[in-house]
Amino acid sequence: xxxxxxxxxxxxxxxxxxxxxxxxxxxxxxxxxxxxxxxxxxxxxxxxxxxxxxxxxxxxxxxxxxxxxxxxxxxxxxxxxxxxxxxxxxxxxxxxxxxxxxxxxxxxxxxxxxxxxxxxxxxxxxxxxxxxxxxxxxxxxxxxxxxxxxxxxxxxxxxxxxxxxxxxxxxxxxxxxxxxxxxxxxxxxxxxxxxxxxxxxxxxxxxxxxxxxxxxxxxxxxxxxxxxxxxxxx
Length: 234
Fold this sequence. Notes:
This protein is mainly alpha-helical. The chain has two domains: 1-106, no CATH class; 112-234, no CATH class. It is 58% helix and 5% strand. The protein contains 13 helices and five strands. The protein has helices at residues 11-29, 35-53, 57-65, 70-91, 99-104, 116-120, 124-128, 134-141, 145-154, 183-190, 193-200, 212-217, 221-231; strands spanning 131-132, 160-161, 167-170, 174-175, 178-179. It has a three-stranded antiparallel β-sheet. It has a two-stranded antiparallel ribbon with strand order 4-5. Strand 4 and strand 5 form a beta hairpin. Helix 10 packs parallel to helix 13 (221-231). The chain is globular and about 55 Å long. It starts with 10 loop residues before the first helix and ends with a helix. Mean pLDDT is 76; it is low at 1-8 and 93-121.
């Protein structure tokens, strides 16, 4: 018996249909936007929509469960896509793999994380998400400065240097005023705090494209620690 094929357009046609709708909407929203940018945005939107329909029901339900976080995750994806495009342009390899091809491939789009020295030249907020200093954490999360510094000394929390000797702390690592379980173990495995946090907040190949920090926040600690052990530089 042949597999049932749902009626309607194929995946490529569906992606093109979404792209055309997005292009029209974007052109209506901002008539001054560059036409090539309009086309690129349409292709990205079409590819993502098509890729989502190809996910298993389990993964589709997982996306539905975090709908409130989707805008932030989409922003991270777009920034990563822009950084990868800039890197390829500088290397003279732009266009080697189009966004639609990568998104519709069997494997998820998981660009290699930047080296730690690359991260030093980037604004923290551009890749780490929301961060805060000790004053904010004390006033808003009730974390005493002495406690925060103790966690930092013991490696229980990820602290990112932000100019001079100042450190800031990614907010996504805290739940109920404490760093989520597993943060210290991941930091021990990977070593560099910036690389550790980058890995924690991006889809990880070692976790079938899932985001490690989301799993830690869901108490799936052992799976993340083992993945960090596999990822960690030798």
